[in-house]
Structures are given as structure tokens and as C-alpha cells.
Amino acid sequence: MKIIFLRLWPEDIRLKVRIFMEFPVGFYMIVLMKILGILFFVCSVMLAVWAFFIEPSLLHVRFYKVSCPSLGGMRLVFASDFHFGRTHSKRAEKIVAEINRQKADVVLLGGDYLKGHKPESFMPVGDIARALGKIRAPGGVFGVLGNHDLFTDKDRLIEAFRREGINLLQNENRFVSVGKRGFYVAGIEDMYTQRPNLKKTLPETEYPVILLSHEPDIYRDVPEKVLLTLSGHMHGGQLRLPFFGALIVPSPMGRKYAQGYFEENGKKMIVSSGLGTSLLPFRLNAVPEIVVVDFE
Question: What pTM was estimated for this model as a whole?
Fold first, then answer.
């Protein structure tokens, strides 16, 4: 059948086919390996361009619904791990604009406003405070410090934020009221660079309590009376591979709480993948995000 089929082709094509079939199998394996090598190189370059230049500049809004009848209809926005560098003023404007677009009743910030460990690597503290000071929420803007924020004068940062109407909580809490709905927002100090005190942080109250903790590692110690814990720090792993998950996980608990919604033993927690980058300036399958929580 093959011979009859070949006879139907023009003579020049039949000649080329015969020459092709006479080459040893090893020759075609070498050609195939070269083609695969070129494809691998091209894909690697495209992946690097995406991870270093495109994905870190994206901004995703992730929505969650949490049941709490007393806060029904209330919306809060949570944003964390900004890591503002010297050249990130436009990025800061974009983030603030997106936060304001959500029309939240309350905005909560999870820390790590600074990038790097040295003053020359991060945006001046006053500029960061002024940028985030443009966030608008009728119930107010509250936050905590992250581990990177301790590489500058902590008191100067807290004061700069306070002047812009942002309350940074350190083992303390505030009552937040929006209309007839109210809750306590509690902010605990960073687990690895400060002195967190959960007992001092949480109020004795019948009102709902929302806990801000830069790291999710506090989750196992949080009592059930806390309605919701909000954390960051993990960057969603920053680099996530298919079938493997997060690669960069700065937590003794590993990838368990890298990103997402968790509910265990009656306790709820949301871990944001954050907005900036740390250590290496890339993200892959860990798109920067703002978290929106709607209570129902």
C-alpha cells in the first residue's frame, strides 16, 4: 500500500522521501533534541520575562465571603506586603486607586511597607505614608508592622502613618463602628522581630474581633472567639510550580498557609499573597492581590 501511495507522488517528491528514509534513526534523534532545546530556550526566556517584568506589575482583586450576621453588608479590604522601592510611586498610586475602587467600609494593612533592608532600597517613609494616606474608608484605615519595617526607625514610621490617618497597632486594638455595625480590629506585633502578646492584643468583648498578624504562624494560637485572622508575609510562595506549589515559604509551618482561605477548629484565616516582592524581584503563579471580604 505504501509503495502504491508513493507512486502517486511526483518523481522529485518521491526522491526526497527516499533520501529522508535512508537517514539513520540517530540523525533524527539529534535533530529532535535540537528542536526541543530551542523550544526550551524560547520558553525559558518567555517565562523569565513574565516572572520578572509582567506578573509583579499585575494587580488582582480576590473576593471572599465570611458569615457574620452582625456585620452583614459590611465590606473590608486587606492589603499586605507592599515592599515599596525607590521607583514604585506609580505602583503605589495604582494600588491605592484599586483599594478605593472597592468602596470598603474599613481598610486593613498587613505590614511590610518597605523594600529591602537599607534606606537606599525603599521608598522614603514619608512618601509611603502620603501615598497610603489617600486610602478612603468611612470606618478608618488600620494596620500592623511587618518584619521588613523594622529595618527603619519604627517610631518614625508609625508617626508618619498616624499623620496621614493610618493607625498602626502594636499588641493593641481599636473599636470600629460603621453605621450600626461594629467590631474590634486587633493588631499584634511581628512574630520574629518584635514581642507579640496575644493576650494583650485581644479585647474581652462580645463584639466580633478581626485580628491582624503579619505572619500566619500565629493562627494555631488564636482563640475561637476571633472571627477572622488576616495575614500576609508568605507572598503566596512568590514562585509556585505546577504539582509542587509554593517554593519560597518563610514559615516554620512550610507551605501549609502560603495563601488562601483556611478554616480549622472553628477558626478562620485569610492569607494574602501580597503586592510586592522580596529577596528576588519576581513572581510566578503568585499574582499580586488585594483582598476584599464581604460579611453576610
Answer: 0.88
